[in-house]
Amino acid sequence: MLRRANQSKNQSDVTVLGGGLAGLSFAIQCRQQLPDAKITVLEKREHPVPEAAFKVGESTVEVAAHYFGSVLGLRQHILEEQLPKLGLRFFFPAGDNSRIEDRLELGGKRYAPCPSYQLDRGRFENYLGDLCLERGIQFLDQATVRDVEVNRFGSHMVDYELNGELQTVESRWVVDASGRRAFLKRKLDLQMPSEHVANAAWFRFGNRIKIDDWSDDSGWQAGHEGKTARWYSTNHFMGEGYWVWMIPLSSGSTSMGIVAEEKFHSLSNFNSFDKALAWLEKFEPQCARVVRENADCLQDFRAIKRYSTECKQVFSGNRWGITGEAGFFHDPFYSPGSDFIAFANTFLCDLVRRDLTGRGYRIRAFSYDRIFKRFYYGTLSAYQNQYQLFGNPTVMPVKILWDYLVYWSITGFIFMQGRMCEQTMYLRNLKALKRLGTVNHFMQDLFQRWHQSTSQIKATGSINISEMPVIRQMNQRLKDKLESGEFFSRFATNLHQLELLASEIATESGLDVELPFAVPGHDNDDLVPDAFHEIFDSIIPAKSPVKMVS
Ligand SMILES: Cc1cc2nc3c(=O)[nH]c(=O)nc-3n(C[C@H](O)[C@H](O)[C@H](O)COP(=O)(O)OP(=O)(O)OC[C@H]3O[C@@H](n4cnc5c(N)ncnc54)[C@H](O)[C@@H]3O)c2cc1C
Fold first, then answer.
1. pLDDT (mean) for 77-91
2. I need a surface site. Which of 9, 124, 212, 457 has the fewest CB within 10 A?
């Protein structure tokens, strides 16, 4: 039986339930914008947490890297204590997958202009926790939230247990960052089933595993010396219905995971270490070999069923909000988890700041909630029903590059231009955003159909994306500092380019399809015209049947 603390209630402007990645980074961002606000973070684990074998969510892409590095100002820690990431890298199936040099590879040989990082989550959360304390945030570890009372008028009440005593904090805002515990989602009955049914298992080894050592073929090794070795990438080993990740951590460990859509590979076939090893022996023998060799330094093993999670609402005018996995999570394939933390935190900080500085926030909460969900469902289409083509070396490289360009043209572009909370921007671009949504959905359907006609085609070779001008330039453009007029014209260019690309890909697919838009002409500012020819050129040695457009 818990004793209730004898003291009067604590008061806070913002109380954060859960001090993981989302909660701690939200608190730091909130402090930046509101130097005098009283912010309380309640985290049930004891700090410092262990390094390496702690949580998944290690690979970041451009938005998250920008959010942690620039928006929160953590670049120095990241550069000194974490690892740079040589982008995402993909290996497609070849034979029995026992020779990596025979597999079609898509990845870069140089770092992209916009950085991304591999984060050791334990090390990172320890740093964030210390920073919270340094900046006057009341960060309480070993504080377990027991109940939340959300009140439409007046303060919210959060009961938590600390040192065997039950305490209450009375708070104007409550932000749920409790991860899978999902306090507010359960309390307010906001659960929603996700139609994307996929599972994962992961484990870490206390050794650095370098895939660069998997072949002594000098041609295969060329261009990947020193800091551009392949092991710096988030490596994806692809097959029908699945992918396997390999991520290096700065603490010297290596993270490995199997992710698969349930209808292709049941979780019951890889939900223990022994079963995962047997599964790898069958589908990814080179991964299996290093797992066997490193089994004596295995650090952990976890599995999660149906990781995709949804929520009816994440921001409310009644002064509550949800961030991180406590709300939505679609899929780890392109490492978007931390991006969506950046989006949610940015919207939430703006709402709290508006309220505490006497500005309107209720209508904003409604509209941010809608925008966030649009971004989520727009991105979900890149994963849902797409695992069937993960082993297809003809379609998948094109899809991956398409998905990159969509990301850099819309959500990545808006966020990195600092315009996430600009309502007029959305209103002005409403038509363009709708068109982008239509084009993207059309393309995701097309990839599935294209897959049906090409699934048996094999491929080998390498697609070096760092030498593709459109990829490098679109990535570089994310760093541009644009004035308002330039921003809107770039947005229009992005849409124009995507439509052009879509029409080229549709032609190359050889499918009989009707485009949902009029094919645009080329503008001088477009990067597109040659882009996909390069990609098709790269796939041609793979003897794909795609023909070049004249
Ligand atoms: C298989 C898989 C792979 C992934 N890979 C990536 C990736 O490579 N890159 C990426 O960006 N994202 C990835 N993600 C997503 C990533 O894991 C999440 O984005 C991120 O970890 C979510 O952080 P969070 O703070 O919301 O949750 P968590 O990190 O889980 O934090 C929640 C915190 O709440 C605390 N808590 C829970 N209950 C209570 C309570 N009652 N009282 C007090 N505290 C409580 C917990 O102790 C915890 O610290 C992956 C997800 C999955 C499923």
1. 98
2. 9
- Answer whether 199 contacts ligand 1 (Cβ < 6 A): no
Average pLDDT score over residue span 50-59: 90
Instruction: State the pTM of this model.
Output: 0.95
- The verdict on residue 93 lying in a domain is yes
* Structural domains of the chain, count: 3
Mean pLDDT along residues 395-421: 96
Residues 241 and 319 in one domain: no
- The CATH number of the domain holding residue 239 is 3.30.9
Task: Indicate the residue among 305, 333, 351 that finishes a domain.
Answer: 305
Query: Where a domain ends, among 384, 407, 431?
Result: 384
161: which 2 tokens? 């247990």
Q: Give which of 505, 503, 495, 488 is closest to 447, Cα–Cα.
A: 505
Q: Does ligand 1 lie within 6 Å of residue 324's CB atom? A: yes
Between the CA atoms of 177, 378, 418 and 321, what dihedral angle is there, to the nearest 10 degrees? -30
How many beta carbons lie within 10 A of that of residue 285, not counting itself? 13
pLDDT score at 81: 98
Does ligand 1 have an atom closer than 6 angstroms to the CB of 228? no
Question: Confidence class of residue 529 from pLDDT cuts 50, 70 and 90?
Answer: low
538, pLDDT greater than 70: no
What value does the mean pLDDT take over residues 124-140? 98
Residue 453 has pLDDT above 80, yes or no: yes
234 and 328 together in one domain: no
Q: Categorize the per-residue pLDDT at 350 as very low, low, confident or very high, splitting at 50, 70 and 90.
A: very high
Measured from the Cα of 257, ligand 1's closest atom is 1
Residues 155 and 263 in one domain: no
Same domain, 297 and 313: no
Residue 351 lies in a domain: yes
User: Are both 499 and 518 inside the same structural domain?
Assistant: yes
Q: Is the pLDDT of residue 550 over 60?
A: no
**Three-state secondary-structure class, residue 253:** coil
Convert the pLDDT of each residue in 163-180 to its tens digit: 999 999 999 999 999 999
- Ligand 1 pocket check for 18: Cβ under 6 Å: yes
- Give the domain extent around 316: 1-79+120-192+309-384
The confidence band for 518, taking pLDDT boundaries of 50, 70 and 90, is confident
In this structure, the answer to whether residues 239 and 352 fall within a common structural domain is no
Tokens of 209: 């595993």
- Same domain assignment for residues 240 and 347: no
Backbone torsions φ then ψ of 102, nearest 5 degrees: -90, -10
Write out pLDDT tens, residues 242-300.
999 999 999 999 999 999 999 999 999 999 999 999 999 999 999 999 999 999 999 99
Is position 550 within any domain?
Answer: no
- For ligand 1, atom 16, which residue shows the shortest CA distance? 57
Radius of gyration of the chain (CA): 24
CATH number of the domain bearing residue 354: 3.50.50.60
Indicate if 400 and 523 belong to the same structural domain.
yes
Predicted confidence at residue 4, as pLDDT, reads 62
Is the beta carbon of 162 within 6 A of some atom in ligand 1? no
Query: What is d(CA 310, CA 63) in angstroms, rounded to the nearest whole number?
Result: 21
CA of 61 to the centre of ligand 1 (A): 16
